[in-house]
Design goal:
single chain; 161 residues; alpha+beta; binds zinc ion
């Protein structure tokens, strides 16, 4: 599968990005071209969760994309980081509070029961909105450029144009 092209005077490259249909091709700025080989290697591995080893089927269950839409990682880091299921990363997923999501419990020092309530409230607000954005993207990612994936307040900082 040819997933990424770059070279010559082409100013943009194509990268594989997670959408509602699974992994799909998107244009990325050529600046991220040095990530191309890593992106390709990642595709060859099938985008498996680095915790449980199962495939991450679509954007609605992606921990990596939750961190992207909530402004914690840039689009460059997105393309270079390992994928993970939300349910496989309870330290982040414990902050998602939604009826349709089975909120996992994290153990140890990173359990939210060990954290300051104001911080927990802030994280719950952010991660829950991020999760809702992922469910939205599940429907609209086909028509949405990668730079518009994040929540509105994080769109500028995650753009590398
Ligand atoms: Zn997993």
């Amino acid at each position: 599968m040819s997933i990424l092209r770059k070279g010559g005077r082409v100013s943009r490259a194509v990268a594989i990005v997670l959408t509602s249909r699974g992994w799909d091709q998107f244009q990325v700025p050529a600046k991220t071209g040095d990530l191309c080989e890593r992106v390709m290697a990642k595709c060859d591995q099938g985008y498996l969760c680095d915790v449980c080893g199962e495939e991450v089927d679509n954007i609605s269950e992606s921990d990596l994309y939750l961190r992207f839409v909530t402004g914690q990682i840039t689009s460059q880091a997105l393309l270079a980081s390992p994928e993970r299921h939300l349910k496989c990363n309870p330290i982040v997923a414990q902050f998602i509070v939604a009826e349709q999501f089975e909120t996992p419990t994290a153990d140890g020092p990173f359990a939210k029961s060990e954290m300051d309530p104001p911080y927990v409230a802030e994280q719950e607000d952010l991660m829950t909105r991020g999760w809702q954005r992922l469910q939205e993207l599940y429907e609209i990612s086909d028509q949405t450029p990668l730079t518009d994936y994040p929540l509105p307040e994080f769109r500028r900082s995650t753009s590398d144009r």
